[in-house]
């Protein structure tokens, strides 16, 4: 026995059960952060099934008056906002979901570039001046854990690609700036 929901007289017990199940099996965390350099708010909602690594991010940007500027596709993260480049960097960690690419968007939500993952993404971030993005991968090469470090500029150009076995402070120069990235000893992927 099922009546139209608009009548609201009776709702199928099955529908109530599915609604309860859907609500009880999802995890939602919301976080908001103000970026003073850009005068924007980033609102991130993390959603996914309870007790699961399968989580995704709903990301929206708002101006100072809380007017919606942009909404992004579902992302995995972690996320970084570059004030210098006026971009959102989503590393798209492949540890649980198996994502394929890191993504960089402008602040209006348009994809600027993507970078295909080279192995297990161990860590990621931006340089201190927020002009370059880096991705640290672990792979197995010659039967040993190996690091790969890739540094990208704001257009997706590879600035540095370095593969090595131990820990290392990587020093490099780009556009007259000197950079140092401290990369730990390689571990087995996973």
Structure explained in plain terms:
This protein has 190 residues and is mostly beta strands. The chain has a single domain (27-183), classed as 8 Propeller (Methanol Dehydrogenase, Chain A), CATH 2.140.10.30. The chain is built from one helix and 14 strands, in the order αββββββββββββββ. The chain has one helix spanning 13-24, and strands spanning 26-35, 40-49, 56-63, 68-71, 79-82, 87-90, 101-106, 111-116, 120-126, 133-141, 144-152, 158-164, 168-174, 177-183. It has a four-stranded antiparallel sheet with strand order 1-2-3-4. It is globular. It starts with 12 loop residues before the first helix and ends in a 7-residue tail after the last strand. The model is unreliable at 1-25 (pLDDT under 50).
CATH class: Mainly Beta
Order the strands across the largest sheet as they lie in space.
Answer: 1-2-3-4
- Overall 3D shape: globular
What is the number of domains? 1
CATH-derived architecture: 8 Propeller
Share of β-strand residues: over 45%
Helical stretch count? 1
CATH H-level superfamily: Dipeptidylpeptidase IV, N-terminal domain
- And the CATH topology? Methanol Dehydrogenase, Chain A
What structural class is derived from the secondary structure elements? mainly beta
The tally of beta strands, per DSSP, is 14
Ends apart, CA distance between termini: 50 Å
Helical coverage, percent range: under 10%
Mean pLDDT: 85
């Amino acid at each position: 026995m099922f009546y139209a929901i608009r009548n609201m007289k009776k709702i199928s017990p099955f529908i109530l059960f599915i609604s309860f199940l859907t609500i009880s099996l999802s995890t939602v965390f919301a976080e908001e952060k103000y970026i003073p350099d850009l005068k924007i708010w980033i609102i991130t909602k993390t959603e996914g099934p309870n007790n699961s690594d399968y989580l995704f991010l709903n990301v929206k940007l708002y101006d100072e008056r809380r007017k919606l500027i942009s909404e992004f596709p579902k992302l995995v993260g972690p996320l970084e906002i570059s004030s210098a480049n006026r971009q959102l960097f989503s590393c798209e960690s492949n540890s649980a979901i198996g994502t394929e690419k890191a993504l960089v968007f402008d602040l209006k939500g348009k994809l600027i570039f993507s970078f295909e993952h080279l192995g297990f993404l161990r860590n990621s971030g931006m340089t201190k001046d927020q002009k370059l993005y880096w991705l640290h991968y672990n792979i197995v090469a010659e039967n040993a854990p190996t690091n790969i470090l890739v540094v990208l500029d704001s257009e997706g150009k590879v600035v540095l690609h370095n593969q090595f076995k131990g820990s290392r402070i990587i020093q490099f120069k780009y556009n007259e700036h000197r950079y140092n990235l401290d990369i730990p000893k390689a571990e087995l992927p996973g």
